[in-house]
Specification:
This protein is mainly beta and 219 residues long. The protein has a single domain, classed as Lipoprotein localisation LolA/LolB/LppX (outer membrane lipoprotein receptor (LolB), chain A). It has three helices and eleven strands, in the order ααββββββαβββββ. A hairpin with an 8-residue loop joins strand 8 and strand 9. The two termini are 27 Å apart.
Length: 219
């Protein structure tokens, strides 16, 4: 499979910034009624109630190109994006840093989780009220929350979309998010087959360093 520009697309995806648009399959209409004042509290409760999650994902970039894969999350701080067969890239969060490994060109990029709005997803103890706002959806069954640090616009924006689901932690199910980085590169992540609070081994968040003389480094 030809991998032209895939590294660039995944680097943009790893920046994890969002704009208030809909996740796949959820219609977001013009604002009609304000979200309730406790919406952010509900989202915070969901995050605190979710110790782990696995899901399938579809990543769509600004050009409409799509990649599939599986997501594994373990709070606090750990996440893994395993892309479909034939895509030699991996994104792993080990609790403090996010790392993107490109096995085709033997390159590794890493940055602190705290330097990304994705930190809100990985750290349930962060106070959403300080840097998040509810985006009206016109659908009482859907919550959309935009997260960004106004003091650090270079970190980008992330907008999480959650669906009310009595069987999910805190009564909400994370449906996906849309990220917008400081260069206006837009990436959408849509989730399916979510499983919450399942056993997840820490070995999922280790990775093999492809750079010469550095193999076997844990993530």
């Amino acid at each position: 499979m030809k991998l032209t520009n895939i590294s660039h697309r995944l680097t943009c995806a790893a920046a994890w910034a969002l704009v208030p648009v809909c996740a796949a399959g959820i219609a977001v209409t013009a604002p009609a009624t304000a979200q309730s004042a406790n919406a952010l509290s509900s989202v915070q409760t969901h995050l605190k109630s979710t110790s782990s999650m696995t899901a399938d994902f579809v990543q769509t970039d600004r050009n409409g190109q799509r990649l599939n894969g599986t997501l594994t999350l373990k709070r606090p701080g750990k996440i893994r994006f395993q892309y479909q067969k034939g895509i030699p890239l991996l994104i792993v969060g080990d609790g403090s840093r996010l790392t993107m490994i490109d096995y085709e060109v033997k390159q590794v990029q890493s940055w602190p989780v705290k330097n990304s709005p994705l930190g809100a997803l990985l750290d349930p103890d962060r106070d959403l009220s300080k840097y998040a706002k509810v985006v009206p959806t016109g659908n009482n069954g859907v919550l959309s929350v935009e997260i960004k640090d106004p003091k650090r616009p270079e970190y980008g924006t992330i907008t999480m979309v959650l669906v009310r689901d009595g069987a999910a932690p805190g009564g909400l199910r994370l449906h996906g998010w849309v990220a917008l980085d400081s260069q206006n590169n837009r990436t959408r992540i849509d989730l399916s087959n979510q499983k919450f609070n399942v056993a997840v081994a820490d070995s999922n968040f280790r990775w093999t360093d492809p750079r010469p003389n550095r193999r076997g480094r844990p993530g």
